[in-house]
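User: Just a sanity check before I run the rest of the batch. Below are the structure tokens for the first item. I only need the designed sequence back.
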């Protein structure tokens, strides 16, 4: 730690301070050990066992090192001492306590030490300015201890967070494999604090769109990287509520969400989401992608079925759309657009006009053209089904 000047405050202390104070170290250690449980309630426990040994060692090392400093430019902590106080900080994380509790204990120890010095040492042996420097040095030293423990605390938190992420990623992979025979999924879910749901969905998000994703999903979302995508497993307990939650978290991320499945069959949800991405499945006219909403595969299953066999779809398109051959491209585009809307809305002019942003009379005119071109084929349910398939697959 840097000081206000280039010299540490204990440089101005005479080396004789150490000689005067060394004999009372044991008494000061005992006073601190006795008072910490009373002054810092979180440590109100017997100072015995591993905990008591750790506290006693920390206090003893701290006091003895402090008495090595007067009249020197030594760093506050040796490498071994730094390790001790970093580990005390780590221990607070492992014990579920806040860092502030440990720092409060340090401050208490400094006060006890200063009071003990004032009571035990013959003031005539230490001039007043030395006593003041002693107090300044003592509290500067405590700042160094606190900094080392804060570093250890932060490192332990970071490592634990990394381990937690690793275990959550491992849990996700186990779920996608459907590992349900030996209860390993349930045990690992419990270990990471994730409630194992009956039903999940699997979503894919491409890497350029993953910033802030974990925070948006919250603790319910399991996330891992695979290839050029990030995979998500998310509980789907209530269809309406969960779909809304995911829509919010995935908006603007070009996400594809597989169908809901029991967690043991989550691999199927991933398979269908991957297939949808590979075949370029996109939201339909009633769910424009302009608002960044994710693609829900369950809304595009028919489209996915068609796109899964592109050669067969091409042949079917050539056959069913043959009556439009020879038309100018702009005319053909208008008529195929109208035909798909007509099929989707079962011939109702009002919703067709609303979807195409045209007048109902225009719809009537175009439909008349289509009936003239296709003839009686438009009355055949099988032909209408096949026309809708090829048009939904993007053929025009």
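Assistant: Here's the designed sequence for the first item:
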């Amino acid at each position: 730690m840097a000081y206000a000047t280039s010299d540490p405050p204990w440089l101005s202390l005479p080396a004789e301070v150490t000689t005067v104070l060394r004999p009372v170290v044991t008494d000061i250690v005992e006073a601190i050990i006795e008072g910490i449980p009373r002054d810092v309630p979180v440590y109100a426990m017997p100072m015995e066992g591993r905990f008591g040994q750790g506290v006693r060692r920390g206090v003893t090392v701290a006091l003895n090192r402090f008495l090595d400093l007067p009249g020197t430019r030594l760093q506050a902590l040796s490498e071994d001492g730094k390790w001790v106080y970093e580990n005390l900080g780590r221990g607070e994380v492992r014990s579920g306590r806040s860092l502030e509790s440990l720092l409060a204990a340090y401050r208490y120890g400094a006060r006890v030490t200063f009071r003990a010095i004032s009571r035990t040492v013959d003031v005539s042996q230490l001039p007043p300015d030395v006593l003041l420097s002693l107090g300044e040095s003592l509290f500067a030293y405590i700042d160094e201890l606190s900094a080392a423990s804060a570093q250890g605390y932060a490192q332990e938190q970071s490592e634990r967070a990394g381990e937690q992420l690793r275990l959550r990623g491992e849990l996700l992979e186990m779920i996608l494999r459907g590992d349900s025979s030996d209860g390993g999924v349930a045990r690992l879910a419990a270990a990471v604090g994730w409630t194992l749901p009956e039903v999940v969905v699997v979503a894919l998000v491409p890497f350029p769109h993953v910033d802030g994703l974990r925070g948006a999903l919250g603790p319910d979302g399991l996330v891992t990287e695979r290839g050029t995508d990030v995979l998500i497993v998310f509980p789907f307990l209530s269809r309406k509520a969960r779909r809304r939650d995911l829509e919010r978290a995935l908006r603007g991320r070009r996400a594809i969400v597989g169908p809901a499945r029991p967690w043991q069959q989550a691999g199927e949800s991933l398979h269908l989401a991957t297939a949808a991405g590979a075949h370029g499945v996109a939201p339909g006219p009633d769910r424009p992608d302009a608002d960044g909403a994710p693609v829900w595969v369950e809304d595009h299953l028919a489209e996915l079925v068609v796109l899964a066999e592109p050669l067969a779809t091409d042949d079917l398109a050539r056959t069913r759309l043959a009556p439009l051959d020879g038309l100018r491209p702009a005319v053909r585009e208008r008529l195929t657009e109208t035909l798909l809307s007509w099929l989707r809305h079962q011939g109702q002019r009002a919703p067709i006009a609303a979807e195409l942003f045209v007048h109902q009379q225009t719809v009537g005119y175009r439909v008349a053209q289509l009936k003239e071109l296709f003839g009686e084929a438009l009355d055949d349910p099988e032909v209408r089904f096949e026309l809708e398939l090829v048009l939904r697959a993007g053929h025009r």
